[in-house]
Design a protein that fits this description.
heterodimer, A: about 625 residues, alpha+beta, 7-stranded mixed sheet, 20 helices, 22 strands, B: about 450 residues, alpha/beta, Gyrase A, domain 2, Four Helix Bundle (Hemerythrin (Met), subunit A), Rossmann fold, 3 domains, 6-stranded mixed sheet, 13 strands, about 15% strand, globular
Chain lengths: ~625, ~450
């Protein structure tokens, strides 16, 4: 008998299983193929805008993805460095051999965690409460909690042209009956679609026709452990090419042969990640589309063509690939395909990621309608933490929208649901300025420590950092400079305008042209760059940060106003009918959540609050 | 979300009657801070609870109304929140402006019955007492549900919608640059591009706000003050405009000791004209009060008619009046044009000068034309109504304008574009509230429809 069973060994499953096991709960991770644990079936990269910040958040909370990505780094790049601190994000090209290998090592060395191969086809339920799982060979395994992280494996079908093959990614075995079982239990099932491009033999590419894209000259890490595994000098490069007129002609000519335009696809594809045929049709005025050639690993020669995902039949794919500059003689190692799979309606989940229908059943990752390794891992971690907290009879960890991108992601899922596979974007976060790459630990490490995933030692290191930030801030506020000649001379040569009255160093730092190095002209600042960075960001963007905090405060107030679980919306007079229907469907837990449901107007919230007060 | 229980709300809480004192009431945790930020007098954040304070409500440097402010701190108030009541004396127009000022300092216009609703939600009124009130709120809220699109005219709402469309394109462009930093074939939105767009947008929004001001003029009239030294012919100008002998016109300086009013309609627009006591230094106490009152009227006026005497040289008092009215909408009437010219305005750089003759009707029509011209009354009548209809909309538009100014300031301070985007997005949201479009994935939808992004 296990305390927790995690179904699926992808990025969500690994984080979930590690979290429950590390918190001392006997955990079993069941997956179709142990060799495929933490596989990266699509692009060989981790991070990017918003997503990279999620990886930092996972690390701050005590999850694994950041550390593991650091170990697998092939290329390191900080994005948006010319923009503000709130949108900067890290992205790595990650080795597709090292990443799964290292994750497997970690899983195997974790206490309380067992791995087993098998296909789960049915859930065992007793009185609307989970009791375990049943495998395809009818073996029953019992547990108190089950976390489903099945990725794209539910009734998955691979599509190329008119060909449809029941299969998981890369020919892995799919789960045939689990989604039927979920449907019987009352879950609403969606059909989603995604796709992946071709892999090309590196030696068959003429790189002289491509443009090299290098990594940064300085090392970066996702994890706050700050261990550098890859020397910046040994990074691999990506290469940029563009589609040609000929490519577009081929696509238009064969359009009806693609699964998508031939009408073979039922699932809804992601808007942010259209296939190349979609791009050519929808943006017909564009003369070219850019593609990146990305190496997948140091251990084999597959090159991933980012931007070229398609559901064309194999012979058309040959024509398409050979129409690309430098790829005239390219050898295709794996053909592109579209994949359709079942997901559940995420509005049937609580904020804790426990399902509303079956107690002690949690879901995380693509089964909830998201896409992306990082989105999956973030959910997996939260599902794992909350499953463990449930076993410990504690309140769940629910991250608010002003605390983490993971909070934004989960709140969007359970409040708004998805139509197409959900990807995190910076514009989904209304408090973007608060959710930065640089301050993930300040936002979340305390939670990680409280739930028991951050060790005492690491926590103490973190405490030192926060104390130093406070010290430096106080020091800068307390130290005043006056318009003496020496000081004004120094300021003028920066150049910055001379002082008229005395000001604190903190006020001085607010000037756009003043850096912390300038401040060090006046006092010693014996702190790490991370500490200095926090102070500088706070000084430079104080006005904006204050505004964001004020808005967030209002939101939090609404989050404290709870709605009882058994509320009967039919008994509330005067609710608009659309609002009534939406509220019944989603059953929000707080007034704050209710107010974010589209179709629920401020007046409805008003009526709801009055009703609650009257009957409370 | 638009209407949040955590907002600080404000409304005019007395019936809008002529001559009565009206009260602008605020409730919520920022009430005192908001009023304090536009109050000239004591520091209201430091005064005791349940006390009354004298002072002025100001919009920037401009004094709007002389007021008494009651400060009532939580919890012993009607709503149990911090409550401030502002007793305004200046009539409808200035009370409206006090409200607008409060709204542009961070308060939100209260919904019908919202003060009572808060009193109930915060446990101030018991169930039985509130039952009846609540039913009204319920029904009002339902009405509000149906009234999402306010009473904006098609023209104004289209103007704002077009404006938002422009902003949306800009925002989507910036967002694509942020979320897809390596998409090279996409236009990079530069600071120069934003600066250029900002200029156009500010101008457009300014126009909308300006025309909205003219709109309150349609409803409430133009408050016109005639001002000048004694015996320059103020009263006779009023009389000519009114074509009746309401003001006492005599040859003895200082006859009009109190304020004389009259209404006329110009192109269907109400012109509320006030004749004031002549401005001069005087020892006569009654007249002195009249003079002070005359000067204070200037602040409240929509239009000031300054009357000068053609026959006399520009006096110190005249100069003072010109100085005091220089930022107002102003017409300068040079009266007694039939007498010898001793007045020299040639190096004063003055606009809108009309000459009138005291004894005939000469110059009265040009004066009327000039008034029409200044308030674009012709266009108001003939064009469609392109304006915002209530204080809430006007305050939202002003906040949107302020937000554009923040963006401009951010650019000047070398802030990165994603910070500027926050101000632009704020403008977009505020304008969305005016036209009732608050769907929050609008920009994202636009982005995916119009930019070819993805792996």
């Amino acid at each position: 008998m296990y305390e927790v069973i995690v179904v699926g060994g992808g990025h969500a499953g690994c984080e979930a299983a590690l979290a429950t096991a590390r918190k001392g709960h006997k955990t079993l991770l069941i997956t179709g193929n142990i060799k495929n644990i933490a596989d990266m079936p699509c692009n060989p990269s981790i991070g990017g805008p918003a997503k990279g910040i999620v990886v930092r958040e996972i690390d701050a909370l005590g999850g694994e993805m950041g550390k593991n990505a650091d170990k697998a780094a092939l290329q390191m790049k900080m994005l948006n460095t010319k923009k503000g601190p709130a949108v900067q994000a890290l992205r790595f090209q990650a080795d597709k051999i090292i990443y799964p290998q290292e994750m497997l090592k970690t899983l195997k060395s974790t206490k309380n965690l067992e791995l087993q191969e098998g296909m789960v086809e049915k859930l065992i339920i007793e009185n609307q409460k989970i009791a375990g799982v049943e495998l395809e060979d009818k073996t029953k395994i019992l547990s108190k909690i089950v976390i489903l992280t099945t990725g794209t494996y539910l009734k998955s079908v691979i599509l190329t042209g008119s060909q449809k093959t029941a299969s998981g990614p890369h020919g892995e075995k799919e789960s045939k009956f689990l989604s039927e079982n979920l449907k019987e239990l009352g879950f609403k099932i969606l059909r989603l679609k995604t796709g992946t491009p071709q892999r090309i033999d590196k030696s068959s590419i003429d790189y002289t026709q491509t443009q090299e894209e290098k990594g940064d000259n300085i090392p970066h890490t996702f994890s706050y452990d700050n261990i550098i595994y890859r020397n910046p000098k040994d990074q691999v490069s990506c290469h940029l090419i563009y589609t040609t007129q000929r490519t577009h002609e081929i696509i238009k000519e064969h359009l009806q042969e693609s699964s998508m335009y031939g009408g073979y696809v039922e699932g809804i594809g992601p808007r942010y990640c259209p296939s190349i045929e979609d791009k050519v049709v929808r943006f017909s005025d564009k003369e070219r589309h850019q593609l990146f050639l990305e190496p997948e690993s140091l251990f084999y020669d597959d090159i991933y063509i980012q931007g070229f995902s398609t559901s064309m039949p194999h012979d058309v794919q040959e024509l398409m690939v050979h129409s690309l500059p430098g790829l005239e003689h390219a050898k295709i190692l794996k053909y592109a395909y579209a994949i359709e799979y079942d997901a559940i309606d995420s509005r049937q989940l609580k904020q804790s990621l426990e399902t509303k229908i079956i107690e002690n059943l949690y879901t995380a990752g693509q089964i909830n309608g998201t896409s992306g390794y990082e989105e999956a891992a973030g959910q997996g971690l939260i599902a794992g933490i909350n499953a463990a907290l449930k076993l410990e009879e504690k309140e769940p960890l629910i991250l608010k929208r002003n605390e983490a991108y993971i909070g934004v992601l989960i709140d969007d899922l359970v409040t708004k649901g998805v139509k197409d596979p959900y990807r995190l974007l910076t514009s989904r976060a209304e408090y973007r300025l608060l959710l930065r790459h640089d301050n993930a630990d300040l936002r979340l490490r305390e939670y990680g420590y409280q739930v028991g995933l951050i060790s005492e030692e690491k926590y103490q290191q973190f405490r030192v950092k926060t104390q130093q930030i406070e010290e430096l801030l106080k020091n800068l506020n307390d130290t005043r400079i006056t318009p003496k000649e020496e000081i004004n001379n120094y300021l003028e040569q920066i150049p910055s305008s001379p002082l008229k009255d005395g000001i604190s160093l903190y006020e001085l730092l607010k000037r756009p042209e003043i850096t912390l190095e300038n401040i060090e002209h006046f006092i010693e600042v014996p702190y790490s760059n991370e500490v200095k960075e926090q102070i500088a960001i706070n000084a430079k963007y104080e006005g904006y940060i204050k505004k964001a905090n004020k808005e967030a405060e209002k939101m939090i107030q609404l989050e404290t106003k709870k709605i009882p679980e058994n509320i009967d919306y039919d008994k509330i007079p005067n609710l608009a009918s659309e609002a009534r229907q939406k509220l019944k469907e989603i059953n929000p837990t707080t007034i704050g959540q209710a107010s974010r449901i589209s179709g629920v107007n401020p007046a409805d919230i008003s009526i709801l609050m009055v009703y609650l007060k009257r009957n409370g | 979300m638009k209407n949040n229980i955590e907002d600080t709300i404000a409304a005019i809480s007395t019936a809008l009657g002529v001559g009565a004192i009206s009260i602008v009431r605020l409730s919520g945790k920022d009430s005192i801070e908001i009023v304090n930020s536009c109050f000239q007098g004591k520091d209201l954040t430091k005064v005791d609870s349940h006390t009354i304070h004298y002072g002025w409500i100001k919009a920037g440097q401009e004094k709007i109304d002389e007021v008494l402010v009651s400060i009532m701190r939580a919890p012993k108030t009607y709503t149990t929140e911090d409550v401030v009541e502002i007793n305004c004396h200046g009539g409808i127009i200035s009370t409206q402006r006090v409200l607008e000022t409060i709204l542009s300092h961070g308060a939100r216009l209260a919904d019908p019955g919202e003060f009572t609703k808060r009193a109930f939600l915060n446990g101030r009124i018991d169930l039985i007492k509130s039952e009846a009130v609540m039913d009204i709120i319920d029904s009002k809220s339902e009405e509000a549900n149906k009234l999402a699109l306010s009473q904006l005219s098609g023209t104004t709402s289209n103007l704002i919608k077009n404006f938002r469309e422009r902003l949306k394109q800009l925002l989507a462009g910036i967002k694509v640059n942020i979320d897809y930093p390596e998409y090279y074939d996409i236009e990079i939105i530069t600071k120069e591009k934003i600066t250029q767009e900002l200029k156009i947008m500010k101008k457009e929004l300014e126009k909308i706000i300006q025309e909205s001001k003219n709109s309150s003029i349609i409803k409430e009239g133009i408050k016109t003050v005639i001002i000048g030294r004694p015996n320059v012919g103020k009263s006779s100008i009023l009389n000519k405009l009114l074509q009746q002998d309401k003001a006492i016109v005599t040859e003895i300086a200082g006859t009009t000791r109190d304020i004389v009013e009259g209404d006329i309609y110009l192109n269907g627009i109400l012109l509320n004209i006030i004749d004031t006591a002549g401005i001069r230094s005087t020892e006569d106490i009654v007249e002195k009060i009249g003079v002070e009152k005359s000067l204070s009227m200037i602040d409240e006026a929509d239009l000031v008619i300054v009357v000068l005497n053609n026959h006399e040289k520009l006096s110190i008092e005249d100069e003072e009046i010109l100085e005091k009215t220089k930022d107002k909408k102003r017409i300068i009437v040079v009266n007694k044009s039939d007498l010898n010219k001793n007045l020299d305005l040639s190096n004063k750089n003055l606009e809108n000068i009309i000459e009138t003759n005291t004894t005939t009707m000469e110059g009265v029509n040009p004066l009327k034309e000039k008034i029409k011209d200044l308030f674009q009354l012709e266009s108001l009548k003939t064009k469609d109504y392109t304006y915002l209809t209530n204080a809430r909309q006007i305050s939202l538009a002003k906040q949107a304008y302020e937000s554009l100014k923040d963006a401009e300031e951010g650019l000047a301070n070398q802030l990165p574009i994603d910070m500027i985007e926050i101000d632009l997005k704020n403008t977009f949201d505020l304008l969305g509230e005016i036209v009732g479009e608050t769907y929050n994935e609008e920009i994202l939808d636009y982005l995916f429809e119009n930019f070819c992004v993805g792996k």
